[in-house]
Input
Amino acid sequence: PRVPRLSRVLRYDFGLSRFRRNQCPVRLGISVQVPSEWLSSLGRNSQEASRGAANGVVAVPAIALDPITARHGKMRFSELFALMKATKTWCQGTLSRMTTEAGLFQELMHDPELGSIEIETVTEYAAKLSRLPPDIYQAKRKFNTDSLAEIAEIAEREKLKRKESITVNGHVRRLSEILGWATESRVRKMAFNPASGFGKDDKKNKKKKQDNRDEFSDDDLALIFSADWFKTGTGKFNKSGSTNWRPHYYWLPLVGLFVGGRINELSQLYLKDIVKSESGVWYFDFNLDDRDKIKDDGGNDIGPDGSLKTINSERIVPMHDCLVRLGLIVYVEALKKAGHKRLFPELKHDDVKGYGKPAGSWFNERYLGKTLGMKRDGRKTFHSFRHTFLTALGHLENPEIGERVIAEIAGHVRGETESANVYIKDRAAEKLKPVIDRLDFAAVADVAPFKSQDGLKAIKWALRLKLSAARSKILKQKA
Output
């Protein structure tokens, strides 16, 4: 009769008191000396009993301390994630990303039981991640292996670059989303989330990669806008009408410079997102109205479960007079007349990173790197247009251009108080237009107006190639 009373004491003294501090271990390994005659009531077998016969005592092993772990502790992590996927209405991008994250933990930690996942498990997972190269998929192709353990060994042996701590913490935060879901009241497959709060200090002290970008200098801008298509307003076509040039080669750098948008925000623009106000002011409407839109360069999803940052990214930015002069409105109308719905219909959609992936690959690697010969150290990318834009905006000498105005145009948090973020409405396009038009970049002074009909011809050729590639992919799958 005394045995249940002992177990209650253990559960209180070593379990609940620590659980309230979110430090409850799944099992508690302790040694307690008890009379040998208790062994039968504790369910010990004869072999274990014989070990304590000499002195009449026995070590009681690890004890399950909470009913959730007792019931679900044997469930594998892969089973938990399969259950999570079945209850979520994720878009394709999120599904692919979360499946990849779950797969990393499953492989590196050998698909552990939920009852064995503790803080030490998460720490070990982070340590294993830190041994891997930044691009795992590229490493798999390069070293011709799917084994992460082998890739880690090769990276260590050849002294390759590894994942940075901020990247590792990003992986762990994704894991925390899964384990956190398991602790929700409607799920209750785990007693607590051992990954909760991991890397918080690192997150506070380190900037995102995109925040480490440099702005473009005047010389950089002069080099960027020196391409033939900026001088002539069109690309080169051969006699058959084919071309390797695309309209976004012309418009994306210009719009990035005068709007300060992130590459995904610009690449996924619909024609209906370019709006004319009642007073005749044209502006870009960055909204969340379409499910295939994703937010910034991080590739995070938007939609009903969008984050606060995503909501702040909703904004309007007046169109600079330079863009109107170069023919953007004329081109928009030509696209509409041709039956297109997007500003850049030639861009191929990526399930994870959206329309910005092909645009970023072209600008950062092929144009800046191979064509212009700029150093590819991550400091200067398309995101540098945003830094250049915001820096120029901040340097305008005008008392009306305060932090609130810049935050509205950039799509940042409007302020630290509820009043600033909820009750004070953003300015209309008419109010922001004079601010935008004051921006002046000498590098675009000689850019020629865009030839819309050539743009349509280039799109027609690009779509033809996309259709051909899609058909080839289908044929390969059938084969």
